[in-house]
Design goal:
heterodimer; A: 113 residues; mainly beta; 6-stranded mixed beta sheet; 4-stranded antiparallel beta sheet; 0% helix; 50% strand; B: 115 residues; 11 strands; 54% strand; globular
Chain lengths: 113, 115
């Protein structure tokens, strides 16, 4: 079946540090890949996505590249801010019919001033 | 532009009581999802509707859980009887179409505590 594995959190960084949150997946075929972000007390919201191999999704300074050879979709940001503190979820969705998102367990990011 | 609206935001109840969670999806969206979030299991899909019809309810944990979508603008998730292990945050989400690239819009969730 489909599955998503994320690095355990929390990830604790100082403001302006470089961020990497690892994500690997298992799926048949070539799924679409997503990063969602959940701010405290809120629901998840889409951060970025990539729909095919070598695509790079980007938004708000965050980037992730769809790597088919390593089945990975690592999230990166060059300089984090305190406002980036949240839980980040990697997810996949098969490109077929009525398919739904499979989420990783989430990685909490804490950024201190 | 209102997003997905869930109610109540918080629910505290005693074991054995019936709990009903409500969701109003974004107008025009034809897919609706119920998720449960816990520390141990992360985010789990419970059930998925398309055009008000349940498409996949394989994630519903047991017969105590039921979900309905009587029309395009309203859905309920009911737990009867509730148990302490049902304590979690329950999210409703909606999207415009059932496809690989569509974006899910989540509500703010219902924090359920069963004592």
């Amino acid at each position: 079946g489909n599955s998503v594995t994320q690095m355990e959190g929390p990830v604790t960084l100082s403001e302006e540090a470089f961020l990497t949150i690892n994500c690997t997946y298992t799926a048949t075929g070539y799924p679409s890949l997503f990063w969602y972000v959940q701010y405290p007390g809120e629901g998840l919201q889409l951060l970025l996505k990539a729909t095919k191999a070598d695509d790079k999704g980007s938004n708000k300074g965050f980037e992730a590249t769809y790597r088919k050879e390593t089945t990975s979709f690592h999230l990166e940001k060059g300089s984090v801010q305190v406002s980036d503190s949240a839980v980040y979820f990697c997810a996949l969705r098969p490109n077929s019919g009525y398919s739904t998102l499979t989420f990783g367990k989430g990685t909490m990011l804490l950024v201190s001033p | 532009d209102a997003g997905v609206i869930q109610s109540p935001r918080h629910e505290v109840t005693e074991m054995g009581q019936e709990v009903t969670l409500r969701c109003k999806p974004i107008s025009g969206h034809n897919s609706l999802f119920w998720y449960r979030q816990t520390m141990m299991r992360g985010l789990e899909l419970l059930i998925y509707f398309n055009n008000n019809v349940p498409i996949d309810d394989s994630g519903m944990p047991e017969d105590r859980f039921s979900a309905k979508m009587p029309n395009a603008s309203f859905s309920t998730l009911k737990i009867q009887p509730s148990e302490p292990r049902d304590s979690a945050v329950y999210f409703c989400a909606s999207s415009l179409m059932a496809g690989a690239n569509e974006k899910l819009f989540f509500g703010s969730g219902t924090q359920l505590s069963v004592l």
